[in-house]
Fold these 2 entries.
Entry 1:
Amino acid sequence: MISYRDAIERLLAPLSILPSETCALADATGRVLADTVTSPLALPSFDHAAMDGYALKAGASSRGGSEHHVHGSRAAGDVGHIAGAGVCEIMTGARLPQGFDAVIAVERTEMLQARPDGTPHRIRLLDDIAHDRNVRRMGTDVPRGANVLAAGTCIEPAQVMLLAALGVGHVAVVRRPRVAIVCTGKELQTGPTASLRDGQIHNSNGPYLTAALGRAGADVVSCETVDDTVHPYLEALQRAVEAGVDLVISTGAVSMGRYDFVPAALRHFGAQVLFHKVPMRPGKPLLAARLHTGPLVLALPGTPMAVAVGARFFVAPVLRAMCGQGSEPTLRAVLASAQHPKPGLRHFLRATLWLDDRGQLQARPVDQQEPFRIQPFANADAWIVLDEQAGDCAAGMPVEIASLELATPLRLSTGPDFSP
Ligand SMILES: Nc1nc2c(c(=O)[nH]1)N[C@H]1C(S)=C(S)[C@@H](COP(=O)(O)OP(=O)(O)OC[C@H]3O[C@@H](n4cnc5c(N)ncnc54)[C@H](O)[C@@H]3O)O[C@H]1N2
Ligand code: MOO
């Protein structure tokens, strides 16, 4: 048996980033950038008004109380020369006309005289206006040529806004990791709503993995169910290989039972077993292998929480590595109730999270941690991770937590260490 850390190292070491492809921005949400994006434009692209009001030249003649003729009017999108001395009516977003360097908001002026069509002819300023006031200068958000998004960044709506503002219509993204799922077990009823015969259960691992991997940006090319015999399993593996997958995830038949044929079947298939069994709870009998044709195989134990742990703590790092993303930042919270984990095992505990009245994030393991229980998983907010050396953990100590989602929904920057 090798430790979780060693297992992850063995799993990730030979992985390389998947090839890139071009993707329209409209389809890029959830994709991972293959290259750094440099800005083809400055943002703002020109000096413009931040308020509806009047553009003027700040200085001695534009103090509060001064009176001015209004020459011309500019709305966002208007261009052209503004002639004459004085001020120019301007709307938010309009390019600042040549020769002007400040804007006074319309409500900080008084209209002294209107033209017959109602437009302002002469105004008085109510405030002193300094140079640059209410002006957004070109390039102050993004200078042209700046690195705006790093390779490995997942494109979320905020990145779509930035790229759209820069006029970037297509981006180079990492090809989605292609994954095949194979659920083993003759007890599995595959029709999701079909009635169960005696001894049968609904397949919950397949739909869970399909949902979780899809959310994490993988392309789930198939999800098959096979019985507890070698040949259908190997045939499913062969189909996955032919479909050109990067990763096969199987569930079940990987432990000590008479019908736990997966380890032998993989060896028979010529797979190189990277490790089998990791000292952790749940999910200990997990096996990882590499097929001679290239794809990785993660054979997860069939128990639902062993599948959830395998997906979150083995599959997710593999997907990140395939997409050129570094390791996840570690999140911590305050342990809300004492724990006495079994020494030598890494424990993954389903937990609820809340912010206490001092603003500290508290994490409490749910009461029922047996690996067959799905209800507490559906009610949980996060995982608590207690490493192999954790020993007895007192309430109040900081512990590592991880999101239930494979791709962490919370973005964190490197900041000061969290200490409760
Ligand atoms: N003698 C030992 N027995 C077991 C050990 C052990 O060390 N010695 N380890 C236990 C642990 S830990 C786990 S986890 C399980 C894993 O066993 P398998 O990977 O062989 O999984 P199965 O026996 O096929 O299934 C386990 C359990 O999960 C249910 N299951 C399977 N597939 C699905 C599915 N797609 N959807 C929902 N539920 C599924 C299956 O019916 C079983 O109840 O082994 C322990 N035994
Ligand atoms: O790995 Mo398990 O502990 O029965 O799910």
Entry 2:
Amino acid sequence: MASTLNVLATFTIIRSTFNDFIPKEIREYLWSFIRRFSSDFTLVIEETHDGSSNHLFKAAMAYLGSHVLSASSASGSPKRLTVGKNENVRKFTFGLDRHSEIVDFFHGVPMKWKYNSDVNTTNNNQFNSESRWYELSFQKKHAEMVKSKYLPHVVSMAKKLKNQNRMVKFHTVRRERWSSSPVNLDHPMTFSTLAMDGDLKKTIVEDLDSFINGKEYYKKIGKVWKRGYLLYGPPGTGKSSLIAAMANHLNFDIYNLNLSAVNSDSSLEFLLLHVSNRSILVIEDIDCTVKLQNREAGDEVGGFPHVQVTLSGLLNSIDGLLSCCGDERIIVFTTNYKDKIDAALLRAGRMDKHICLSYCTPSIFKQLAANYLGISNHDLFCRIEKIIEEIHVSPAEVAGELMKCKDPDKSLENLIQFLENKASEGTSDNTEGERGGNPKQEKGSKSKNSTKSDVTNNSITFLALGSGSKTAGEYTVKAELAPILRGVLLKHGDILANCLLNSMQCRSSFLEIVCGIIQKLQAAKLEDLTEVELQSMVASVCDLESVKLELDWLHKRLDEIIDALELVKHSSKLKEDKKRILQEIEQMEKELETNCHTEKPETQNKSLQVQEMKAETEKLSETISNTEAKVSHFQGSLVDGLL
Ligand SMILES: Nc1ncnc2c1ncn2[C@@H]1O[C@H](COP(=O)(O)OP(=O)(O)OP(=O)(O)O)[C@@H](O)[C@H]1O
């Protein structure tokens, strides 16, 4: 700190006329003379400090950025601000323009900030570099307070602001490592749009807030600053939505870990150790990916012989994550079947809070109606609430119905029709005790309902072409998917030959997912697909592989498409670079034309620079055409050779 303390006396107003008419040397002499009698004190905060980047400079930039706009309406405030936004932040960021000033009041004490910058040019005029610094001026008597209170306040506020403004990222696993290019989460779910019963939402938000504000408390009680949540409940009750709301509330990244994509305990450990601070690690459907019971019997992977991650490996990795490195981490497990999970995973310390997401209740329905239709009451509410109390219907199903029509009367009538159909199909099991706690409805039962109607309306029954030992069976898929399924079975044989699922209904539903993915790929062009969509297809394929569907051919194709998409992105970036350089060349050539008669060294340098830039664009063109050649086979169809 001592080295950044330059004691300079300052005057508050520097008149431009003074600068214009008095030579620099005399001005400096006068300033140093005046400074000796001033009670002001100035700290110079340069961009670099002791040879490396100065955190205080960055903090000042972020801190002042949040003040400048509100202060700009006050008198004497800066008339020019800088503004910008890059893809890693949510909102515009403002800043002081060079040579402008702002006064910040801290406990009533004025702190005057000035932003400066200067361009340094080397002797031969070849390299320009910009030095930037802030000057913080205050009365000498406040020096101790600035050092012990104000500067720490600036740093901590800057950290807070930076965290609030950063874009939340969604990380997925690729080839047993976190993907190097996480996507922006951009999920609209927040706690105000998430429908939940009674005080549950309030309790969760309070728990998250007390966790996030509890650094000192955790330190005091000697506990590592991490928290584990288990979210359980039937499909479609909002577990994933709650995770998105948590991430948006805390501005934490999500690390989505699909255990079936991890081949060994050591890979799992590696992944968990490389989760960053301020993040939520999500392990979804933990009961499906690893069979976690029968620990004593040493049957950790039980009926899932392909799963390489063991329960002890998972426990060790989680304990490692929870005990040693990093801070501000949340780990979330989701399951449809809480009772299938080994108690060791759920014990306090690993999972601090168990949150049950329930089937739709009258209160959840009302929140959904308010969100989707913008109404808080309606004559039909009574009837709907009555049916909802009688049957098991998920918030996702109700939301799906409400989304279909914007007119409240029509939408609610449609919902009644849907609920009555559901009731008459006998999907509700009124003998079940807890509405959401211990779902007896199988995860596939939602699709079972839809399959039922599909069978009568628009479906086709298929005889699997057995590839050998296993008896072929009848798969029922939607009519539109039948040609795809036929193609798959012909090309790849019975991909369910070793499938761990026995019921034809489940097998058919899973085949529909496979065909659905292929249908999407058939209809799409490479540039229409997003990485999120592709990652979600890969996640589905991984899930299906975890129950032994033979899908390595589809998995490989999706990986190839993801790689190709990355190349396309890379190539369009290169094209932009090339365009920019060409524009610069054009500009420089114009300047050279104007100065063609001078033989100054700058003119010669510039023409050399133009030649170098031209060579660079040629290289870029070559890289672009190589990249395009690599993805050219995907320009036609994405499913070529797949069926
Ligand atoms: N409680 C809820 N509040 C608001 N919307 C909800 C809620 N539950 C579900 N939805 C809607 O239903 C969709 C699916 O829900 P979501 O994926 O969160 O359920 P889930 O419990 O994670 O399901 P699964 O167990 O099948 O993964 C969401 O995108 C959202 O639109």
